[in-house]
Amino acid sequence: MPRPLPDRAASFVREIRSFTDEHIVPLERELGAHGFVALVPKLEALRSKAKERGLWAPFLPKDLGGQGLTLLEYAHVSEALGRSPVAHYVFNCQAPDVGNMELLHMFGTDAQKERFLGPLTRGETRSSFGMTEPEHAGSNPVWLSTRARKDGDDYVIDGHKWFTSSFEGSAFCIVMAVTEPDAPMHARASQIIVPTDTPGLRFVRNLPVMGEAGGGWASHAEIVLEGVRVPQSNRIGPEGSGFLLAQERLGPGRIHHAMRWIGVAERCFELMCTRAATRELSPGKPLGTKDTIQGWIADSRAEIDASRLLVLDAAEQMDREGAAASRDAISIVKFYVAGMLDRVMDRALQTHGGLGMLDDTPIAWWYRHERAARIYDGPDEVHKSSLAKRILSRHGMKKRD
Ligand SMILES: Cc1cc2nc3c(=O)[nH]c(=O)nc-3n(C[C@H](O)[C@H](O)[C@H](O)COP(=O)(O)OP(=O)(O)OC[C@H]3O[C@@H](n4cnc5c(N)ncnc54)[C@H](O)[C@@H]3O)c2cc1C
Q1: Ligand 1 centre and the CA of 343: distance in Å?
Q2: From the alpha carbon of 132, which atom of ligand 1 is closest?
Q3: CATH classification of 243-394 is 1.20.140.10, yes or no?
Q4: What's the pLDDT tens digit per position in 114-132?
Q5: For 58, 229, 298, 336, which has the most beta carbons within 10 A of its beta carbon?
Q6: Whole-structure pTM over 0.85, yes or no?
Q7: H/E/C letters for each residue in 56-97?
Q8: Ligand 1 pocket at CB < 6 A
Q9: Which CATH class is domain 7-94?
Q10: Residue ranges of the domains in the chain?
């Protein structure tokens, strides 16, 4: 790797990598064959072990039970976790909980922190985040139909959400709902905590992502809210701040995803190289003697290294200047690293031939689940367009919309 690891991160990376290789990688076949839910008892035991070893939630501040790493330090750790599909879960670093923890930590009231954040940071509960609606383009997050109307001290919420990741089994969902319908578009919605056992909150189905509906943390739900009543004190932040807070939540979240994708790409790369070096096309002639495969290996090595540098630079800038000042870096990382991941996973799968289509390696699992990297938290095209518009405005282009 072309950049030295900060000292504190280096020891975390060493320990997390050996923990992952020793305890989590051996579970991958079972994950592929039986799905996430069947693994939960073993994963819970590993979570306790991660806590005992002082490796729990490295991104969280120490007073919340984490290890207090900076974003730059955590970037290295997250890459190590990305080596296996459920490693982030074992260390309580999984989306969407990370984003929800950061949101509640930054903007939650004391009561919200005690009731919702504490159990989440301790790994006693899980959470979900419901913004996207089937009826509206998720790429335009200010256009929502879900409505929260005031009634006494409560909100009564009606709406329809989908792709609510990890909803099944979550203790609460942070729901984005319009509370100020007459305000400008960007100031209409608020984020409201809805405990999942609230009457009127209905689970419709887990969406079959590339044919796999999954379960528990590894699922994406469609849900309906009909007359869901929660106290107004469950709103996070001021009225109408939902979109602003979503940007705050998504800024670091996008970097977190990109850090993980580097780890996924590295593991796919390792598997690709091992297969190319050992799979013989004829006696004494491995796949790796072919120009095409050599080209894939060289391109992948260069693209992963370039991506890592972009991610580390973005993390460093965010540590130094915050999310708002790092918007260009965040957009670049989001579309560039997602594209790199897509290409490296595809080359690794192709190199394995028919074996690549099976769950005997983790490549197929990632292929099903990580294709979405180019769609969620803003599709590639949206990030490219907003980056280009910011650059053009610095060159004098006037805004028309
Ligand atoms: C696996 C997965 C997990 C998810 N988890 C969550 C979650 O936990 N919570 C949640 O609220 N949402 C979640 N989402 C939803 C996700 O955020 C949306 O899918 C995303 O915002 C895109 O919205 P859309 O699907 O409605 O696509 P649309 O907005 O309909 O866009 C379709 C396509 O149009 C193109 N496009 C869109 N806008 C532009 C533009 N301005 N210029 C050029 N082209 C454009 C893009 O290619 C885009 O892919 C998840 C999605 C997936 C796939």
Answers
A1: 20
A2: 11
A3: yes
A4: 999 999 999 999 999 999 9
A5: 58
A6: yes
A7: CCCCCCHHHCCCCCCHHHHHHHHHHHCCCCCHHHHCCCCCCH
A8: 96, 129-132, 137-139, 163-165, 209, 220, 372, 375-376, 379, 381-382, 385
A9: mainly alpha
A10: 7-94, 127-236, 243-394
